[in-house]
Amino acid sequence: MTLKKNILITGGAGFIGSHLVRLFVNKYPNYQIINMDVLTYAGNLENLKDIEDKENYTFIKCDICDIEKVKKVFLDYKIDSVIHLAAESHVDRSIEDPFSFAQTNVMGTLSLLQAAKEYWDTDFTNKLFYHVSTDEVYGSLGQEGFFTEETAYDPHSPYSASKASSDHFVRAFADTYGMPTVISNCSNNYGSYQFPEKLIPLFINNIINNKPLPVYGKGENVRDWLFVNDHVRAIDVIFHDGKLGETYNIGGFNEWKNIDLIKLLIRVVDKHLGRVRGTSEKLITFVADRAGHDVRYAIDATKLKDELGWEPSLQFEEGIDETVKWYLNHTDWLQNITSGAYTKYYEDMYNL
Ligand code: NAD
Ligand code: TYD
């Protein structure tokens, strides 16, 4: 039996957070999971319907920037560990509104760190502040090479700049106050419950609805894709066995040029919809490139494999097939979240 813990997971109603909450609530019945989320457009309690009545689960609607409320949650629930995922997470939105990214990602992280420091005082026994970050802090690669844990930070978008800043604050709290911390930097995730503003769910949704597929630039940018369940398995391993003060890169050695990935998606969605192979390729629409568009991301996850034995469980084609089937079987979920405010975002963003 694992040690009892009261774990604050922030951003648990979002894409990755909901997978993590589900994993921890089901796998560790003697952990109390407190999910703190303010429920922005990206947060959706529907994502957690299957576990919301479990005894070891509590949801608290709270802005991580509201430091007095955050402090009270630490006190009321005797929080001994934090896994921090709450963030503004979409690059395109950060280009339109960098301030909200600085507010949530930087000030929100700082307010959690400060609340943890004050509540834990100087007794850090069995305490942990785990910060979930992104490979985008490392900037952009050329044709060769990988991001390792030693790669210098070089963020380009307001999103990655705010995540880089939050990582620095976490390290500053470790170095200055002795806070027990760990950070992981993961590559692009895909899977169920991802908000359809990110490439994969957006394009699945558009293929289903015969809408144009807005490919930025020439579609030659490269991303390194990891199934979300593999990401949360890695978080589980790092949370339990990671060394304090360390950083772990998470990735599946799975690089795809956007246009190749899009053609794969089209093939898989068309197959499941019973359309003739390639039918939806006509939806591909090249549009103006994203400002400051990072050319290539690629993670070297050797440290995580060698030190903690984590490896991805799925081949990409399998993961994509499973993901496409999930969205096709959850068109209600897609319809619910793509109504209202989302429609306005989409029209303003793409003009298509
Ligand atoms: P998401 O946008 O799907 O979810 C973010 C969640 O945070 C939402 O539930 C939202 O309501 C909540 N939130 C936002 N602002 C908040 C605030 N002020 N107070 C409380 N809650 C707030 O994001 P995601 O894709 O699940 O990403 C989760 C984390 O993982 C982020 O920190 C992100 O930087 C990191 N990450 C994401 C990816 C990816 O591919 N999606 C890859 C690597 C790292
Ligand atoms: P995205 O899912 O936004 O993740 P990130 O920018 O954090 O890597 O985008 C993945 C890639 O797909 C990225 O190179 C931008 C590109 N892209 C498009 O070509 N069109 C789109 O409409 C979107 C949302 C992304």
Sequence-ordered SSE layout with sheet pairings:
Layout: E1 5-10, H1 15-27, E2 31-37, E3 57-61, H2 67-77, E4 81-84, H3 91-96, H4 98-120, E5 128-134, H5 158-177, E6 181-186, E7 188-190, H6 199-208, E8 213-216, E9 222-227, H7 228-241, E10 247-250, E11 255-257, H8 258-273, E12 284-287, H9 302-308, H10 316-329, H11 331-337, H12 341-350
Parallel strand pairs: 1-2, 1-4, 2-3, 4-5, 5-6, 6-10, 7-9, 8-12
Antiparallel strand pairs: 9-11
This protein binds nicotinamide-adenine-dinucleotide and thymidine-5'-diphosphate.
CATH A-level architecture of the domain at 5-190 and 226-250: 3-Layer(aba) Sandwich
The CATH class of the domain at 5-190 and 226-250 turns out to be Alpha Beta
Task: Quote the beta fraction.
Answer: 15-25%
Number of helices: 12
Largest sheet: 7 strands, parallel
What strand line-up does the widest sheet have?
3-2-1-4-5-6-10
Q: Structural class given helices, strands, pairing?
A: alpha/beta
> CATH H level of the domain at 5-190 and 226-250: which superfamily?
NAD(P)-binding Rossmann-like Domain
Global geometry: globular
Average pLDDT metric: 96
Bound molecules: nicotinamide-adenine-dinucleotide, thymidine-5'-diphosphate
Estimated helix fraction = 40-55%
**Low-pLDDT regions:** none
Strand and helix order = EHEEHEHHEHEEHEEHEEHEHHHH
- Rg is 20 Å
